[in-house]
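User: Quick sanity check before I run a bigger batch. Here is a single chain. Can you write out its predicted 3D structure?
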Amino acid sequence: MFGFTHTDYLAMLLSVRVAVVATLLSLPFGFAVAYLMTYRKFRGKVILDVIVNLPLTLPPVVIGYLLLLLLGQQGFIGKMVLQPLGIKLIFTWKAAVVATAVVGFPLMVRSIRTGMETIDVRLIQASRTLGAGWFDTIATVIAPLAMRGIIAGSVLMFARGLGEFGATIIVAGNIPGVTQTIPLAIYDYVNTPRGDAMALSLCVVSISISVAMLIFHEWLGRRMARSD
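Assistant: Done. Predicted structure follows.
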């Protein structure tokens, strides 16, 4: 147990890397969607809500296959956008980032939206009355007051990214040292004779990272509560 190989360490680093990059890339979009859903009234709001939350109800493998159809060489985005720009996405770690971002996006939006819904609307109205533009209001009122939701959504998405398997294996593959994350490495060990010990070791690593993130989230939440 814990006799990790170089490939195992690469899988650990890649898992953290994919989760961090997916979270950072999704955060501005998650904030924007949560803002629209909370404070704006427009036609098609229900449709947007359904689209955002759809990954929660679809099997990750289905999401991965749909991404493969869109981003592959013969897919709409892959053929019309990625190929002319010389961007190769499928079966790279970047594809794992995309898959993680899509799967975890609803969790982030829900958390940020919950944080925004707790804000007293009168504070926003007062800000606008005093002459603040919509960007100033977002930056000085909405974002700071919704910070707990933003942090919670980021932590949830990061944790979800660490455990993503189905969509990742479809669009990124399971290439040791290249696209193999902790869940994919565990899958390999489970299907290898006498690989149970290594699979358990990687499970312990995954649990430890998740627990560390949850502890950090609780600590940060308490610190923010004391500063209020």
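The mean pLDDT is 89.

User: Great, the batch can go ahead then.
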